[in-house]
Amino acid sequence: MTKEELKIRTKSFAIRTFKFLMAIEKNKAVDVVSYQLFKSSSSVAANYRAVCRGKSDSDFLNKLKVVDEEADESLFWLEFIKELEIDCDKIELEKLIKEADELVAIFSAAIRTIKNKFRN
After folding, report:
1. Is pLDDT of 56 > 90?
2. Domain count, the chain
């Protein structure tokens, strides 16, 4: 997957998450969870764009670690919504969980690859 394809994929994840949150159950507690998920999912996309503009290998790696953390946080909040059985589109929730999990796997693998490159 190219950098441009991954930019599109992360932005799509943020947009899909935002649309999902617009339709989710509304109350004070759910609003807090929704806000956290909105911040982390949009951060995946925004910070990946910053990764693509990394000034050095170490800058690239540090920014990529932020993206990985935000993707994992998004996965946490999506799983949290599922486990709390919050009223939402369950099919879209499962798709978002799958996408967040795949993004974490992609970014974690990239981090491992870069770290191995530094060691050699």
Report:
1. no
2. 1
Q: Residue 102: which CATH number?
A: 1.20.1440.60
Owning domain of residue 58: 3-119
The neighbour count for residue 97, using CB atoms within 10 Å, is: 16
- Taking the mean position of all CA atoms in its chain, how far away is CA 73? 7
Q: Which long-range contacts (CB under 8 A, 24 or more apart) does 109-113 make?
A: 110/64, 111/61, 111/64, 111/65, 111/68
Residue written as token pair 């911040």: 39
Distance CA 120, CA 108 (A): 19
pTM exceeding 0.70 = yes
CB atoms within 10 A of CB 50: 14
Task: For residue range 60-107, list pLDDT tens digits in order.
Answer: 899 999 999 999 999 999 999 999 999 999 999 999 999 999 999 999
Q: What is the dihedral of CA 105, 111, 117, 118, to 10 degrees?
A: -160
